[in-house]
What does this fold into?
Amino acid sequence: MTSRYLHIPLLFFILLSGACKKDKEVTTTNTIPTPPTANLHIHFSHQADSLTLFPGQSYTLPGNQSYSVDVFKYYISNIELHYTNGNVFKEDYSYHLIDFKGKSEIILNKVPIGKIGLIKFMIGVDSAKNVSGPQTGDLSPSLGMFWSWNTGYIMVKFEGASPQSGDPNKQLVYHIGGFKGLNKAQRTVFITLPSKATMENNKNYELSLITNASRLFYGTHQIDFSTNYFTMSSNKNASDFADNYMHMISYKNFSEQ
Amino acid sequence: MILRVVFIPIILVFFFLSCKVDPKVKPHFDENELKEIIPTGWPEPVYRFQNNPINKATFELGRALFYDPILSVDSTVSCESCHQQFVAFAHSDHALSHGVANQLTTRNSPALFNLNWHPLFMHDGGVNHIEVQPLAPINNPIEMGENTVHVIKKLRRSARYKKMFEDAFGKGAEINDAQMLKALAQFMALMYSYNSKYDRVKRGEAEFHQDELEGYQIFQQKCNQCHKEPLFSDFQFRNNGLSVNPAINDSGRAHITGLPSDRYKFKTPSLRNITLTAPYMHDGRFNTLDQCLQHYVSGITNTVNLAPELQGGIPLTPSEIQKLKAFLATLTDYTLLTDKKFSNPYAN
It folds into this structure.
C-alpha cells in the first residue's frame, strides 16, 4: 500500500536530473583508456571483367554479347569484420548505397585493431528494413532505389544498352529487388582477406574491392539479352540475377594509407 | 504518508523553477482528442504509432499535406482529390480515379478509415506500411505525377511548411521525406470509424429496427466469414467471383506475389460506410449496392481461385436483400464524415 506512491517522487527526481542538463557540469573525468582502433576505408572499383567500367563504353561478354552501362547502383549492408582471433565487429546501421558514378567508398571509423580474416556483408537490404516504414540516409525512399507500389528496396539497379537487346530501343533495364520468399534478391557475401590485412592503432587502411558489372550476366545463370532485357519486379528472373551478382565483388588489395 | 504528499508538490515546484519553461504554443483544440483508440472488443491494431508519437503539430502537418496539391506535379491534385471526407475518404462517383492531366488510373479509390488494422495496403496488398503508402500516389505518373525529391524541394521553399515541420519535429528540423510521410500517416491513422449505429447498438446505446436486426442475422450467416466484424473485413485476399475485365486484366494479388494461386484475388474491403463509397469493387464496376448484392446472388463467375464459399453464389430472396441493405446502412459513421479535424484546413 505505501509503496504504491513511492514511484511518483522517484519519477520527479529522474525528470529533474534529466530535464536540466545544462545546469549541472559533468565533472567526472574519463579514466578508462580508449581501446586501440584504426580507420578502414572500403573502396569499390568498378570493372567489366578486367577493364575499368566507364559510362557509355561497350564491353564484351563471354559468348559474344556486349553491353554498355549508364546506371549501376547497389546496396551494401550489414558489414561485419571477422578477426582471426574470433572477434567480430559489426557496423551500426550499416546501409550504404554504392554508385559507380558517385559514392564508391565506405568508411568505418574506429574499428578494433587486429588481423581481419574475412569481411562479410550483404548485397541488398535485409528484409527488416523493407517492412519498417520510411528510412533515412542511404535508405531514403527518394533515391530511386525504392519501389512504392510493391514496397521494397531495389537491391541492384542496372540500366544500359546492348545491340543484342530484344528491346526496340536496344535498352537493358534491370531493377532487381524482392526481399522475401524464394525469389528474394539480397545475398550475403564473404570475402577472405590475406594475412597482410592487419591493422594497428591510430592508422588508416584501405580495403580495395572490385565490383565486376559483367558478373550480373553470367555465372550461375546465363542472361540472354534478346529475351531478358527488362526486369522491374521481384520474380525468378530477379533472383537469377542475384545468384550472379552474389559473385560480382572480389578482393583487390589491402594497404595502409 | 503526510510527508510524502507534501513532498510531491515541492518537487513539482522545484522542477518548474529549475528549468526555463519553453513557451510552447497552446493547442487550438483539446489535445486529448488526438489519441490512439482501440474500441472495446476490437483486435489489436497492426500500426501502433511506433516512432510516430501522436501530437497536434504532426497531425496538423499531415492534414495540411493531405489537402495540398503541392504534392502533385501540376499542382492540380491533392490526396483529397481522390479521398473525400464526405464519402468516408473514398472518391465520389468515379469508378476509376482521375489523376493529373485527367488520366484515369486502373483502380477505384478505397475509403480511408481504421487503416491501423490493415496488415497491407492497396487492393493488391503491394504496400506493406502505412508510412510508405503515400509514396505510391506521389510517385505514380498517372496519379500525382510527382517524385518525392521534387516535392521535398517545393516544401523546403515554403516558410509555412518550414514552421510546421519545426513545430512537429523540433527546432531546426529538416524537411525530409521520412517526416513528411510520418505526418501523412499520422493524419490518416487517426481516421477512426467506430460510431455508426451498429457500434452504438453494440455498446447498448441504440437498438436495431426489426429489418436491420434480420439483416444483421443474414449478414452473420452469409458475409461475415470475409467481411468480418467489427472491422467488417479480415483484410485477406480473395477472388469474390468478379468476371475479368479483359481491357485491364488486373491479376490483383498475383501482381505482387507472382503466385498463380493469387490470381484475381483482391483485398477484402471493409463494409463500414458502404452506402457512401460507390462505386464498388477494385475497379469500381458497380454503381449501387443492389448490383453488389445481385452479384453475390447470380453474378459469381467461376474464374481461377474463386473463394470456395462463393461457389454457386449466395442465395438471397428480394426481401433478404432489402434487410441486408437496411443493416448495411447502419454501418455509416456520420461522426467521421463531419469531424472538423479531418476537414480541409484551407477552406473556410
Notes: The CA atoms of residues 24 and 233 of chain A lie 56 Å apart.
